[in-house]
Structures are given as C-alpha cells and as structure tokens.
Design brief:
Rossmann fold; globular; 4 domains; single chain; 16% strand
Length: 563
C-alpha cells in the first residue's frame, strides 16, 4: 500500500485562544522568580518561604488563566498537590521536595525548548509524547449504534477536566465533568466509571478514597489520578477497591486503554459455563446456583452431546463430572484441550474423590482445579467465579495486539471465521472491511516510528470504541485492520465506516513543533458471499486497492460504489 505525505496542520496563531507575546514575557519573568523562591524554600523549609513559592505559582496561574495550557496547568497542579500533601501530613517533606524538584525541572526544561511545550494550548499540545484530539465527534447513523459508556471526570482543574472530556468524547465515551465530589453527589448521575483526582481542595485523601469505595459498593468503578505515586497512596487506592491508578501527567492513549480495560471487565461480568454431568438433578442444582450470580449454564448430559455441540459453544469455563458412563472426565478434558479455541477456558472437576492423587491427575490431564461435591454451594460459586475472572483477564491479554489493543491477527481471523460459520446457519448478513492507513510509511520516515505507533494505537482504540459489542475489530498486520460487522446491511456499514473515516481524518498528531493528519481507506464486502474468510479478505483487498488508486481517504464497497 502507498503512504500519505507529511502535512503541517498547525492551527493559526490568529486565534484568541493562543497566549500572546506579552503574557509569554511575563510568564518567563515569573518563572525566573519562581525558581529562586523554590531554591530558598527547599533550603530553609520554612512556612513563610513555602507560602511565597505557592503565591508565585498562583501568579503564574493567573497570567495563564485565559488560555488552556494543559501541560503547564498539570505541572502547577501537581506541585500544589505535593505541598498540600505535606500540610496534611500525607507525604513527608523529603519526598515532597524530590517530587517538586522534578516538576520545577520540567518547567525549566520547557523554557529551553522552541516552542515551549508548557505554553502550547489545548489545541496545540499534549503533556507527554502522545496524541491530541481536536475533532468533534460525528453523529452516529440511527441504524447502527455502538455502545456508549458514560464516564464522570471529577477534577478541580478546569483545563484537566475539559481535556479529559474531549478525549473521552472522541473515543465514543459520554463524559460528565465535575469540579468536586460534592458537585458530583448533588448531580446524582448514572455512570459506568468515575475518573477521580486524588488531591482536591476541601477534601482529604482519606475522604476521597472513602468516596471511591462508596462508588464501588454501589456498582460504579473508579480510576484515580494523581501526581503522587507513593506506596501509601497506591495502597489506599487498593483498599478503596479502586479499579486502576493513573499518574499525572498522563499519556492520553494509555488513559483510554485503562478506561477500556475497566469498562470491558465490567461488561464481561456475564459468563457461560458448560456443565457436563450424567445426573440431571446435579445439572438443575448447579444451574440454579450459578444463575443467581448472572452466570449462564449450558447443561449437557453425555460426552457425545458435548462434542456434537462444540461448534456452537463458546464457554468461559467447563465444569465436568469426574465419573460418567463409558467415559471419564479426564478423557473429556484431554479431548477439549486438543481444541485450540478452548486453550484458555478453565476446566474444573466436580467429584466426591478429592484425594491428593486425584488432584494431581486432574492437573496432568490439562484441567485447572478440583471441587469436592461436599463443598457448600456458595463456596463452589466463589471458587468458579474467581477462576472465570482470572481466565478472562488472561484471555483478553493474549488475544489482543499489544500496541493497538484490538484483536491480534490470529484472533480476528478466527472471529471472522466463527461469524461466517454461524451466519450460514442462521442466515444473517455480515460485512467485512479491510482498513489501511494512507501513506503510513511517510509518517514513520518523517516523524519516526514512535509517532507511527501512536497513530496505529489511536486508530485501533477509535475503531474499538466505535463498534458495537457484537462486532469484531483486529489488526491484520502492519497498518491494516479488519472489522467484522454482524447483522448489518452493506449500506449501513458503509455509512458507519465513512463516519469513522471522516472523524479520524480530523485528528491532529503532534511531533515536536510539527503537526500532521493521517487518513485511511477501506475495502468492504459482504462476508456471506464467500465460502472462506480468506476469500472475503482478498476481495476486500481488491476494493481497498481501488480506493487507494482513486485518491485515498475513501471507502469502496463490493460493487465499486465510491463513498
């Protein structure tokens, strides 16, 4: 595939959103004064010197208040967090001095760069080597709805709130922004996730984590954000059942990946277990137990029935009786492990024989655990759920492309094949799209492979967030991605893909002082028209070639209809 040329799409300085020359001069005067004050404060450690240092920080904030200087505001907020932590005795002075030294050094380092990254506005910059998101989300077509999760951002820094909100909206999250926990509680929103600043005015860290734990108890997950990265803070987060912890200033793509992981973890709470037992009474008993935990149970009485059904089964765990007529559970486990698609599905045995020898035999035959039939039902459920949760984490990890977070090559091909097999039986219509970044080699050659990786990661995350739960997104290889859209007509799929193409093409990526945009093209086919997935991919590749030849940045469907 060919590759896109370099584009410098830096916004014009004519906009009033950009910091003026007078303010820049004043900022550097204050920065020089700030450095002197910090030298005095770290040496004397007196309250008066620290207060003078804080006052200078406030003066700098006032100078830059009209401008959304995200990186600068984050550094200043982190310095103030560390000072507040000393005042509340949550951090000792030695630790705070070390952290503030690093933050002040960032300001000094920035002043020696052209342009100064601390003085680059919301629309220009990002606080780390990451991507920035400027484009407004494009409205979705009514016939095709991707899932949209709602995330609350609680942070007293307005620029941080707005930046997080813009990033979330771009990746198909709905964002609600709050300046304090009190404001959030008064609003009583229904959200799937809370992005929570750890240090804010008017509340202690203890109160912040008590709030986080109360959210968890009510079924809402929390990710905390802070410039502090101490053992005490991390431990407090764990004890408050916080789902993840992000250190400020954060990398935007890492933020989205962490949020996706937490949301996906919650989404996968409903599991399917295949229970194999020749006694129907046992099947009914365990079905009742697990359905109380929102776990679906497929009860199968014979080995023959099990293997006749394997093509249609996608269980998260197998629960097997050890002893059955004409076959034992160990033999069933051996045959299941010969099926590649069940490599990561735990196998647990239910048996009245829970001797050490039996447990060792179970492990040797590829199973994962043994549960005695005398174990109380609620303990069985807890043990099985623990296995399901851990298996889900491992399965997601090994099935995903490490860079982009979407399915890897093998998994997207397997997923597409599974969709094709089921569609032929169920007579459903499915679409396969092959997506390729335009002139991607020029991105790597001009801006480096790090910039190229950020583009790939951003596209992967955007595709993933824009699709419905039933659709499949994977990295086919290099800069190519495959999407499989289930139960959708070709015209609706083309409309959706064009929305995504336009949306992605509006993003601006930063490399130093340079800005560039990247587009993609796609070839689209009806998956059901082909006997094998490889044939469908080849046909989509032909359409993709036509899209490239026609000028790139477009999508061509099966009948070479240009969009």
């Amino acid at each position: 595939m060919s590759h896109r040329e370099k584009t410098d799409s830096r916004p014009s300085k004519d906009s009033s959103n950009y910091i003026g020359d007078d303010e820049i001069t004043l900022y550097y005067q204050q920065l020089k004064h700030l450095i002197k004050l910090w030298g005095a404060a770290r040496k004397s450690k007196t309250k008066s010197d620290i207060t003078a240092f804080e006052r200078c920080l406030t003066d700098i904030t006032d100078i830059c208040a009209p401008y959304t200087l995200f990186a600068l505001h984050q550094v200043i907020a982190s310095i103030k967090e560390n000072i507040q932590s000393v005042n509340s005795r949550e951090l000792n002075l030695k630790q705070a001095i070390e952290k503030i030294d690093n933050l002040v050094n960032k300001l000094i380092k920035g002043s020696k760069e052209t342009p100064d990254p601390m003085l680059m506005t919301y629309e220009e910059s990002v606080p780390t080597e990451s991507i920035e998101v400027f484009a407004k989300p494009i409205a979705q077509k009514p016939k095709f709805h991707a899932s949209t999760n709602t995330v609350a951002v609680i942070d007293d820094e307005k620029s941080t709130r707005e930046m997080c909100g813009a990033i979330l909206e771009q990746f198909n999250f709905k964002s609600l922004l709050y300046a304090s926990i009190e404001e959030y509680q008064k609003s009583k929103p229904k959200v799937e996730l809370v992005l929570l600043d750890v240090i804010m005015p008017g509340v202690t860290q203890k109160q912040v984590f008590e709030f986080a734990n109360s959210q968890f108890q009510n079924g809402t997950r929390v990710i905390t954000c802070s410039g502090l990265f101490t053992l005490e803070t991390r431990l407090a987060a764990v004890r408050a059942n916080v789902a993840d912890f992000i250190v400020k200033p954060f990398n935007n793509t890492s933020l989205i990946e962490k949020i996706n992981r937490v949301v996906q973890r919650k989404k996968n709470a409903q599991y399917t277990i295949v229970l194999v037992d020749d006694q129907e009474s046992m099947g009914n008993f365990y079905r009742t137990i697990f359905e109380q935990h929102d776990i679906h149970v497929e009860f199968i009485k014979t080995a023959q029935e099990l293997f006749d059904s394997l093509e249609n089964l996608k269980p998260d765990l197998f629960l097997l009786d050890m002893f059955m007529p004409d076959i034992n559970g160990l033999e069933i486990a051996t045959m299941l492990r010969q099926e590649e698609k069940f490599d990561f599905a735990p196998i647990i045995f239910l048996t009245s024989d829970d001797t050490a020898e039996t447990k060792l035999s179970v492990l040797e035959y590829g199973a994962d655990d043994v549960i005695s039939k005398q174990t109380p039902a609620h303990f069985v459920a807890r043990q099985v759920i623990a296995r399901l949760n851990r298996s889900n984490v491992i399965s997601n990890f090994v099935s995903k492309d490490a860079l982009t977070g979407v399915l890897n090559h093998g998994q997207i091909i397997e997923s597409a094949s599974s969709v094709l097999r089921l569609s032929k039986r169920n007579n459903t219509e499915n679409v396969l799209a092959l997506i390729d970044l335009d002139k991607f080699k020029e991105v790597n050659d001009t801006y480096g492979h790090g910039a190229g990786d950020r583009v790939l990661c951003t596209l992967g995350q955007q595709l993933r967030r824009s699709m419905r739960d039933t659709d499949k997104v994977g990295r086919y290889g290099g800069e190519e991605f495959i999407i499989v859209l289930q139960g959708v007509e070709l015209d609706d799929a083309l409309a959706k893909l064009n929305d995504m193409r336009e949306n992605f093409g509006q993003l601006k990526f930063q490399h130093g002082s340079k800005y560039f945009c990247v587009t993609f093209s796609a070839g689209v086919v009806l998956l059901n028209d082909y006997g094998q997935v490889r044939a469908a991919i080849n046909a989509a590749d032909s359409r993709l070639y036509e899209a490239k030849a026609a000028g790139r940045n477009n999508i061509i469907g099966k009948d070479s209809t240009r969009h």
